[in-house]
Amino acid sequence: MSKKFYITTPIYYVNARPHIGHAYTTIACDAIARRQRMLGAETFFLTGTDEHGQKIERAAQAAAKTPQQLTDEVSAEFRALWDRMGLTYDDYIRTTSDRHKRGVQELFRRVRDNGYIYKGRYTGQYCVFDELYVDAVGPGAPCPECGRPTETVEEENYFFKLSAFQDKLIKLYTEQPAEGSAGLSDQELIDKGSQVGAPATFAQCVTSAKYAKAVTAETLRAAKDTSLRAQGSNGFGTPTVTVNGKRADLSDDNWLTSITK
Predict the structure, then answer these.
(1) Which pTM value belongs to this model?
(2) Average pLDDT, whole number, for the chain?
């Protein structure tokens, strides 16, 4: 029985046309997928576009188009470019597609039925560019990620009960090494875990979960109201992934085994 290998690019925002950064990550994934197929792995390579968010809405308004018109056009440009480059993706997902909507609805139902969804209100500083709620003070405070001014947002929404997992998070950071901790010490991780209590909207949790394989230290460092954060790579060197404190070199054929055993 052949081993299975799954790889995905980020699903790209469609507020603007694709650029060299999008090409870089997609080509990198394509190269890895090709190698895995050559090694005999049953490989699934996913890419696509993320078609929600205020910056997409605003880009559509600036272009005098509806959000759906803009996303249809720009998503088609992404796909056409990957096809022109000969990239070997197995599926291309759009978040406005019916199949994606059905998947999100099913996930929401399961989380709700398990008692982790509730309705509430939230007020805080929001960075439209990064689609991120931040622990900033006062209107216009700069986003810690990009430096752009944040906006004060107050909304009624459906929230994920992240506090229900507080003890598990603290236990994780107490028992696991702090690899992938974004520079935080073990004690800082525990302290951050103890601060979990701010609600996370369901949409934020879904958005974050798209990129992550496990709850990581970056979660609590970036914002208390997100459940999961993405793992990156070590600059221009070998790409790595860290799951529950175990770091693996993605150039190693056994990387998945090394972080899940």
Answers:
(1) 0.61
(2) 74
